[in-house]
Design goal:
This protein is of the alpha/beta class and 486 residues long. The protein has helices at 55-64, 76-83, 95-104, 114-119, 141-151, 170-183, 205-209, 221-234, 245-276, 280-287, 310-317, 322-332, 334-346, 373-382, 396-402; strands spanning 31-32, 42-43, 45-49, 68-72, 108-111, 123-126, 131-132, 138-139, 159-162, 192-195, 214-218, 239-241, 353-357, 386-390, 405-406, 417-420, 440-443, 464-466. It has two domains: 32-243, NAD(P)-binding Rossmann-like Domain (Rossmann fold), CATH 3.40.50; 278-486, Rossmann fold. The chain is 34% helix and 13% strand. The strands form four sheets. Strands 5-4-3-6-9-10-11-12 form an eight-stranded mixed beta sheet, with helices on both faces. It starts with 30 loop residues before the first strand and ends in a 20-residue tail after the last strand. Bound molecules: nicotinamide-adenine-dinucleotide. Nicotinamide-adenine-dinucleotide is lined by residues 49-55, 72-75, 78, 127-130, 142, 145-146, 149, 164-165, 198, 200, 202, 305-306.
């Protein structure tokens, strides 16, 4: 955007993202105790059930703060990797070093025997996915099985903490009774149960752990206290003790549903921007210079096993929430809208060769769950297009298995359209001379304009640019991009 008079001192941001300052570590050397009862300055033995993209960094974080940690996973390859001091999650900065470090220090090992691990532990953190079934209702299969797997190890004094996002009321209403029934012990009296949402962003987990306030709510006061003391011993961020587990559960559903609704609004604004011939990103950036405005970014859809899932966890208990369900539908309709725009531009899709770039739900995260690339490819193919796809995080076999004919990066091809579904840095290196028949680039993340992490990307003459609320006619070079005019 052009600065007309003088630089503004108002923080104007595009996309609603801000970087909070990180808290310094103020932990002294902890005292190891057995059993651990939540006394400040003490540590004990912790178990993390589900050593995936979130669970493994948590295990490292706990171990770095003096806890002796057992990671539990049903995947034997995951267990074997951890026991060799290796991270099976390649994309998380700092994780490989962290696993190596705490494993070498003897504070992290892994097992598939959840009950045995929990029997020896003071704290058990559960972080296995809760997904959706075909009717968009919570699919508890992983969490039920994780809860059942630890129940044989539940003992007096144990604190069980759920970090997986759950429908409001599940910690108290579904899982605590299950643990009570299996163990014969009383929750919040003999053992303790709390909820503390995982709020981290893949790719920035360790940075987030030192900045994002940790919300904690117990099913009773002692459960809440022990869980809060546990997090106080392992995190440098503020610990927010909430009134109950339901408040903590709801806060996570609220923050993520807000983001889904916000993005849906940005997607509607993008449609209006196209109609009136303005650049939606200029509009959003300008609007967000008013400190109460936090409009997110429009895009080809919302993917991943978080943001598109959690509104449904809310709707499963409150189906009357119209804004929430409309937002979900709006975001899911973005793929169809993009296909319609392509169809109009190309005069039909039958037999049209199209390259889809980016299959994971977003760049730098190897996760296909709820990726919008899957319906995108399915529907393009349904309309007759010949789709090939590429993703730097996936092998050709993985691409073939998930959804499309793999494209070999750098090969000449007759594509008439390219659709980007992620904002991968690699797109900066696209050699457009390989695609002499190219007519249109549909930039599904508005990432070619120097707005996100990518620099400005020029298209060859005659190739039409179509973003989401940004078009050839409204595309704006940032002031520092080559060829920009002020
Ligand atoms: N990934 C994110 O960006 C993110 C962000 C915030 C919160 N979360 C929360 O974290 C949860 C987990 O996400 P993730 O990305 O770590 O998932 P993931 O798929 O990377 O990891 C889940 C792990 O759990 C293991 N597992 C499954 N069932 C098990 C069982 N019964 N016992 C033991 N292990 C079992 C799997 O083998 C896998 O290693 C999500 O459902 C969500 O609630 C995720």
């Amino acid at each position: 955007m052009t600065i007309v008079s003088r630089p503004s001192n108002v923080v104007s941001f595009l996309g609603g993202s801000i970087t909070p300052p990180s808290n310094p570590c103020t932990h002294g050397t902890p005292r190891t105790v057995a059993p651990w009862t939540g006394e400040p300055g003490t540590v004990g033995r912790a178990v993390v059930v589900g050593a995936g993209k979130m669970g493994l960094p948590l295990a490292v974080q706990f171990a770095r703060h003096g806890w002796t940690v057992t990671a539990v996973d049903v995947n034997h390859d995951v267990v074997a990797a951890i026991n060799e001091g290796r991270s099976h999650v390649a994309e998380e900065p700092g994780l490989a070093e962290g696993v190596g470090e705490v494993h070498a220090a003897g504070r992290l090992h892994a097992t598939s025997d959840a009950a045995a691990a929990v029997r020896d532990a003071d704290v058990a953190v559960l972080i296995v996915p809760v997904m959706l079934d075909d009717a968009q209702q919570p699919d508890y299969r992983y969490m039920d099985s994780a809860v059942d797997s630890i129940s044989g190890g539940v003992h007096p004094g144990l604190t069980v903490i759920f970090e997986t996002t759950l429908p409001v009321g599940d910690t108290r209403g579904r899982f605590a009774p299950r643990l009570e029934a299996a163990s014969g012990l009383k929750a919040d009296a003999d053992f303790f149960v709390a909820f503390s949402p995982e709020r981290l962003y893949s790719g920035a987990v360790f940075a987030n752990l030192s900045t994002y306030p940790k919300l904690v709510g117990g099913i009773g006061p002692e459960s809440g206290r022990r869980a809060a003391e546990f997090y106080d011993s392992v995190l440098d961020a503020e610990i927010v003790a909430m009134s109950c587990s339901e408040a903590a559960e709801f806060s996570k559903i609220a923050e993520t549903t807000y983001r889904d609704v916000n993005i849906a609004l940005a997607n509607e604004f993008a449609r209006v921007a196209d109609r009136v011939g303005v650049n939606v990103l200029d509009v959003i950036q300008a609007a967000n210079s008013q400190p109460y405005s936090h409009i997110h970014q429009p895009g080809i859809g919302v993917g991943g096993h978080c943001i598109p899932v959690y509104p449904h966890l809310l709707l499963s208990r409150a189906p009357d929430l119209e804004v929430v369900s409309t937002a979900r539908r709006t975001n899911d309709a973005q793929v169809g809208n993009a296909i319609k725009a392509l169809e109009a531009q190309l005069g039909g899709l039958d037999d049209v060769p199209i390259l889809v770039l980016g299959l994971t739900y977003r760049e730098n995260v190897k996760e296909l769950a709820y990726s919008r690339a899957l319906p995108l490819i399915e529907r393009l193919s349904f309309h007759g297009a010949n789709v090939m796809a590429y993703d730097p995080l996936l092998s050709t076999e993985e691409i073939e298995r998930c959804c499309a004919t793999p494209y070999r990066w750098g090969q000449p091809a007759q594509f008439r359209a390219i659709v980007t579904q992620t904002a991968d840095k690699l797109w900066e290196e696209i050699d457009f001379s390989l695609f002499p028949k190219l007519e249109v680039v549909l930039d599904g993340r508005n990432s070619f304009d120097g707005n996100n992490t990518l620099r400005w990307i020029d298209l060859p003459a005659g190739v039409r640019y179509m973003g989401i609320g940004v078009q050839d006619a409204t595309r704006r070079r940032p002031a520092d991009a080559p060829g920009a005019t002020r």
